[in-house]
Amino acid sequence: MTCRDLERWLDDGGAPERYVEAMAHARICAHCSATLRGMDELEDLLASPSSAAPEALTERVMARVAITPQAPARIPVLELLPMFQTAPWWVRVALDPAALLAIMLASALIWRGNALFALATAGAATLASWLGHALSAPLPSPDPGAVGAVLIHPYVLAALAIGLAPLVLMASRAIYSWSAERVSRVR
Amino acid sequence: MEQPGRREGDGGRGGAPAEGEAEERELIRLAQGGDESAFRRLVEHHGSRAYALALRIVRSASDAEEVAQDALVRAWRSLPRFRGDSKFSSWLYRIVVRRAFDRAAVLKGRRGREASAEGIESVAAEGAGPDPEARERAARLEKLVAELPEVPRTVVTLYYYQDRSVAEVARILQMPENTVKTHLSRARAALRTGWLGEDATDERNA
After folding, report:
1. CA of A54: which chain B residue's CA is closest?
2. How far apart (Å, rounded) are the C-alpha atoms in residues B146 and B152?
């Protein structure tokens, strides 16, 4: 091992497999022996407490903690209902909304597959015709007296639906958080 | 010649006695249920290190205290969502690091690097105790650490002072382990050069 190798070995964290080799070199090299002593001292200093926290840190944190509510733990939707809170885990898993939806769809497909397919086709056709009508309808002429007519125009309704969708999602999230917090307090 | 101490690769770092871990798990469980006295004990145990970590990043005692306070209060608020996938201390330090980096970015625009480095040197000297030589060495070390860029400085603090393994540092800073190793290696080289260079100068002057 050379002096450069020893420095590189130190900088890479001093792998134990090359320790004996490094010490053997340090025994015959005064410069590297001093480097090793210096690094020991440096690492000891780095590991020692560099600064004490202010004495009042804990008290100040706890004063803020006293007025800070904890966030509710994430609870599966079905557990919000009291009747499911005491159910065994396998019942809760089985009744998880995604699992429930999958079971319902699978059952409907097996039981009345053709009827379900017809229903889906009819729904898609209705949606397509409504969208086609909305996009092909002429824009209403500006008439200050006919506000009601403008509001029920498909363009306006579509724009309102798109604009309101995020608000509805945010409101449902807020209601979920609020109810989850109530449940966690009751627990 | 000395036996290898810290210089043993990365295995076995960040370990804590099993008894202490069990007690901490119980404190976390109680605090998750809203027990403030259990959380107080966690703050007493980890607050000082959270503050020291913040201090190394923001390099101002008042800002470091504010960062540590914010991080601990945020930890309290989010504690019910802590699932125990990582150590509590690693989870807490991740919050501290994130908030300290944010604060450091704001502070960088407000003040010069030199003024803040002097501030932390005096704080470190005070923390080293009454021995003037120890105070002088602590101040010298802080000056060298303060000259490192922000991320290597944080890596060095987490690895040495917070006694985290490379893997834990990588998780806390959300970066690959090899990047942590590179930062550590470069930081060691810079610190070694600075420390031994100054030592050599001292010896020549003596």
Report:
1. B65
2. 10
Write out the H or E segment, with its range, that includes residue A116.
Answer: helix A97-136
pLDDT in tens, B7-37: 444 444 555 555 677 888 889 989 988 899 9
Give residue B160's identity as a one-letter amino acid code. Answer: Y
Give the confidence band of A186 by pLDDT, cuts at 50, 70, 90: very low
Cα–Cα dist B198/B203, whole Å: 9
| Binary contact (A65, B2; C-beta < 8 A) | no
Contact at CB, B196 and A34, closer than 8 angstroms? yes
What phi and psi, each to the nearest 5 degrees, are found at residue B52?
Answer: -60, -40
Closest CB to A11 among B5, B32, B185:
B185
CB contact under 8 Å between B81 and A11, yes or no, is no
Closest residue of A to B186, CA-based? A11
The answer to whether A69 contacts B77, with C-beta atoms less than 8 Å apart, is yes
The b/e string for B126-148 (b: 16+ C-beta within 10 A; e otherwise) is: ebbeeeeeebebbbbbbbbbbeb
Q: Is the pLDDT of residue B75 over 90?
A: yes
Q: How far is CA A171 from CA A79, A164, A168, B81, B195, in A?
A: 20, 10, 5, 22, 59
Contacts of A77 (CB under 8 A, 6+ apart): A96, A97, A176
Which residue of A12, A49, A69 is in closest CB contact with B52?
A: A49
Condensed to tens digits (0 to 9), the pLDDT of residues B110-142 reads 665 544 555 565 665 555 566 777 778 888 888
Q: Is the pTM of this model over 0.80?
A: no
Please give, rounded to a whole number of angstroms, the shortest distance from the CA of B173 to a CA of chain A.
19
Q: Does B25-205 carry CATH code 1.20.1440.20?
A: no
B77-90 average pLDDT score: 84
The ipTM value here is 0.74
Partners of residue B80 in chain A, C-beta under 8 Å:
70-73, 184
Q: Rounded to an integer, what distance in angstroms lies between the CA atom of residue B41 and that of residue B128?
A: 25
A34-89 tens-digit pLDDT: 888 888 888 888 777 667 778 888 999 999 999 888 887 765 555 556 566 566 66
Q: In the numeric block, which tokens belong to residue A33?
A: 């022996």
For chain B, the structural domain boundaries read 25-205
Give the up-direction half-sphere exposure of residue B157: CA atoms within 13 A in the CB hemisphere: 30
